[in-house]
Amino acid sequence: MMTIAIEALTDPALGSDLDALAALLVDAVAANAAVSFLQPLSLDQARAYWQNAIQALSPRSRMLVCRDDQAHIIACVMLHAAWAPNQPHRGEISKVLVHRAHRDRGLATALMQAAESAAHGLGMRLLTLDARAGGAAEALYRKLDWVCIGYIPKFALDADGQQWHDDVLFYKTLPG
């Protein structure tokens, strides 16, 4: 049985971590995941994205990664603190990615729980996220008791650039 560890990644991220995150993002896009990018996504483009995204994290934001027993990054999630001064209680979840070779092992659930715990520890009491309507992510968030607030039709192109997909919006109130 594989042992996993979830940890916060800090800036500056190690080059090997950026390479692993790039490979994770390329894998997600190749699998037609709705994660803001179109195919083909090169490793260089993905690495540049992660380098910028990690550097841009505010002190109250977190990049959580899941490592396997050889310390390879196999999954991730980002928790962004709201930028607005009147919303210190709010955060947003993005880039919940699990490498295809490691899916169906509960990693996305574990990452979401870790992100919610991190958010709670940072004083956040309201989280939001969005996902492609009808996909595996929507089912995951519903299973984790996120509240669906609606759909936006033709929100974005699928990663293959061929069809539009609808988006579903969720929120979750944390205790406290």
From TrEMBL:
Superkingdom of origin organism: Bacteria
Pfam families: Acetyltransf_1
Domain N-acetyltransferase intervals: 4-175
PROSITE patterns, per the entry: GNAT
Keyword Nucleotide-binding: no
Transmembrane parts of this sequence: none
GO molecular function: acyltransferase activity, transferring groups other than amino-acyl groups
Name recorded for this polypeptide: GNAT family N-acetyltransferase
Organism: Ahniella affigens
